[in-house]
């Protein structure tokens, strides 16, 4: 069995630290959007756990929408061209929309999502990412709310995968380079 299959990711952000920061973030968003109903957009797949925790912490009326986005082929070597693989059923016109992402790395995914959704004329369009890698950005992107800034680590857990594994971890872990 290759080493990678026996390696457990090291803990980068504990469950307690993660949940405490989510509460802060949810309080901040609830204050900013007080008195409004929001449309919360979950970007599949990686964001589903972050999204489900956040919508339960937000003190706002919320409509939930789900968006599938994927790159053509291997994102690491491609031009970063993306496509919508699952679209929402509801129009966004005049809605207060917050896009929830698990991670902003190159920024290509969020940038594509924001420009695509902006064309649908929402009243407000904001982004909220759990993890933000500011040093990895390849395109300028608007990150309105973020949980944690991190470095160039390969992170897994809490929705994020490595080859389909580790999404169910309750914390954020790091896989060593080379595995
Ligand atoms: C991950 C993550 C973000 C995107 C961030 O998705 O969920 O959507 O990459 O990277 P970027 O800033 O470089 O575009 P992934 O393509 O791994 O799909 P998944 O969420 O379905 O696992």
Textual characterization of the structure:
This protein is of the alpha/beta class. The protein has a single domain, classed as Rossmann fold, CATH 3.40.50.2020. The chain is 24% helix and 31% strand. The chain contains four helices and nine strands. It has helices spanning 3-6, 15-32, 48-57, 108-118; strands at residues 10-13, 38-44, 62-71, 82-86, 96-104, 124-132, 145-149, 154-156, 172-175. It has a six-stranded mixed β-sheet with strand order 4-3-2-5-6-7, with helices on both faces. Strand 2, helix 3 (48-57) and strand 3 (62-71) form a beta-alpha-beta unit. Helix 2 crosses helix 3. The longest helix is centred in the N-terminal third of the chain and has 18 residues, at 15-32. The radius of gyration is 16 Å and the shape is globular. It starts with a helix and ends with a strand. The relative contact order is 0.20. Mean pLDDT is 92; it is low at 1-5. It binds 1-O-pyrophosphono-5-O-phosphono-alpha-D-ribofuranose. 1-O-pyrophosphono-5-O-phosphono-alpha-D-ribofuranose binds at residues 43-46, 75, 101-110, 161.
Name the poorly predicted regions: 1-5
SSE pattern: HEHEHEEEHEEEE
Count the domains. 1
Mean pLDDT: 92
Could you tell me how far the N terminus lies from the C terminus, measured between alpha carbons in angstroms? 12 Å
Describe the protein's topology:
Blueprint: H1 3-6, E1 10-13, H2 15-32, E2 38-44, H3 48-57, E3 62-71, E4 82-86, E5 96-104, H4 108-118, E6 124-132, E7 145-149, E8 154-156, E9 172-175
Parallel strand pairs: 2-3, 2-5, 5-6, 6-7
Antiparallel strand pairs: 1-9, 3-4, 8-9
The structure holds 1-O-pyrophosphono-5-O-phosphono-alpha-D-ribofuranose.
